[in-house]
Design a protein that fits this description.
This protein is mainly alpha-helical and 162 residues long. 83% of the residues lie in helices and 0% in strands.
Length: 162
């Protein structure tokens, strides 16, 4: 992979990590504090789940950082790359499970809504969409992992022939 592209991608990873950290430290707690007056029993658990969801994304980004380093040095088709791909898969599945749990709670719990339920319907739609996107990403990553495995095996066979 070209070094300039790797550097740009790593810069993007740093920006997204910083935005996620800002969200975890400032945005989520502030929103939870504002919503605690309207939804007293739910603000803190939802805030914790939101912070954990962002943490799952951050873990995946750290793994992508490592994979970019391996690609930069031409070592992406090595068995150790699978460890980082597995980290991406596990963190995306964990985030999907969190989103699915929130969606199930929003669907089944009777949460009072001051605006006639529109806020809950929007939150439910957002969490269902997030869970669907997370599941789709995890499945695509599993498929890409199997392609990486085949490419790694082919590279090792070529190395033996040469």
């Amino acid at each position: 992979m070209h070094p300039i592209l790797t550097t740009l991608l790593r810069a993007a990873v740093v920006v997204v990590l910083a935005v996620g950290l800002f969200g975890q430290v400032v945005v989520i707690p502030t929103t939870a504090a504002d919503e605690s007056e309207l939804f007293p029993p739910y603000a803190v658990p939802y805030a914790v789940l939101a912070v954990l969801g962002v943490a799952c994304v951050q873990v995946a980004l750290v793994a992508v950082w490592r994979l970019l380093g391996m690609a930069r040095h031409g070592a992406l088709f090595a068995p150790r790359a699978f460890r980082w791909v597995d980290v991406v898969i596990v963190s995306s599945v964990a985030a999907t499970v969190l989103a699915t749990g929130v969606a199930a709670h929003l669907l089944l719990a009777e949460i009072p809504s001051p605006d006639g339920g529109m806020g809950m319907e929007s939150a439910l739609a957002a969490t269902v969409t997030t869970a669907g996107a997370g599941a789709s990403f995890a499945m695509v990553t599993v498929i890409m992992r199997s392609l990486l495995r085949k490419a790694t095996e082919l590279q090792q066979e070529m190395a033996e022939v040469i």
